[in-house]
């Protein structure tokens, strides 16, 4: 039997609001706010050029349960285009766009198969090859129980079997646990491919058969670094070939600048500009977290009479109008050795902070994170975010004690 070819994507989060961004030129903000759509357009363009046999979209097409009108209109129009090209699309909805939300309904063309809340099978015939695709949509936002027992074990030896599942591996505590599964449970189903969604970081959990998170198609904040996209998959009963296709319209990146031997402000600015230019060549439009590394005692003087905020402002100014944009969202200093004398008091406060786990941090920050209007402006609290908070807190603390 011949091989089939499909595109596997998940977590489109169309019309993500990109809240925590301030001080950008209007043009840049517009570009970022349109980025989920631009990434999606790239997928549709690629689909028309490459003509895969079908598309799999594994949950969170929409960012919100009200499925913004704009996002639905764009999605519907794209599906009409694929209808004209005769390309089926199998969709499962996830925790962000679960079926229990209320939204203005669009009618999708008949090439689109929307999986219901009960685990079901979509059967396609591709050049004589039978393909069975199993999956479900989230009936409500919080599907905390395991759904894996609802998937049948594959029996038909002539068919190609594919599972679609929006959920998290039971051992992965870094994300909200939805529809948890263990890798062994997936393997027991004897499918040829597991198309996963929900985790926004690209991951291959298993190779034979492939168990795959393609990641999201466009980063939505600085905790989602790097190039995003989807997988172009060629699959037969005995082989699988996966190619990652980038789709990011704006790449969130960490850019490092080596500050060794930098003595004057103009040298530092030039080094920053060069680093941003190199990033621009490689990635195009970017939102950058700029890390100044190896700041020794001499180069530290550069920050004595100008604050980090002033530096950030100056670097941003030098990038103004340069296309494609390199927006520096955050500037982080890495000092070689702290010139501050650590005192018994700073030590003891820092050691208390070291013992807090994620739930302690959530508790401590709850005034902010649960604030009716403030909560919209903060980024999700992840391990990485906490690491930054810790560093900032230590810096503040030593500063304050020095001044006292
Ligand atoms: Mn998602």
Outline the structure in words.
The mean pLDDT is 91. The protein is globular and about 75 Å long. β14 (286-295), α6 and β15 (326-335) form a beta-alpha-beta unit. The chain has helices spanning 26-33, 35-50, 69-84, 183-188, 265-283, 308-319, 344-354, 358-364, 366-369, 383-403, and strands spanning 4-9, 54-58, 89-92, 112-114, 120-126, 129-135, 160-166, 193-197, 203-206, 211-213, 229-235, 240-246, 251-258, 286-295, 326-335. The chain has a 6-stranded mixed beta sheet. Helices cover 30% and strands 23% of the residues. It folds into 3 domains: 4-246, Metallo-dependent phosphatases (Purple Acid Phosphatase, chain A, domain 2, 4-Layer Sandwich), CATH 3.60.21; 250-339, no CATH class; 342-404, no CATH class. By secondary structure, the protein is α/β, with parallel strands linked by helices. The chain is built from 10 helices and 15 strands. The structure holds manganese (II) ion (MN). Manganese (II) ion binds at residues 11, 13, 60, 94, 96, 198, 200.
Ligand set: manganese (II) ion
Helicity range:
25-40%
The arrangement of helices and strands along the chain is EHHEHEEEEEHEEEEEEHEHEHHHH
What is the architecture of the largest domain at the second tier of CATH? 4-Layer Sandwich
Question: How does the overall form come out from the CA principal axes?
Answer: globular
* Oligomerization status of the protein chains: single chain
Strand content: 15-25%
List the uncertain runs: none
In CATH terms, the superfamily of the largest domain is Metallo-dependent phosphatases
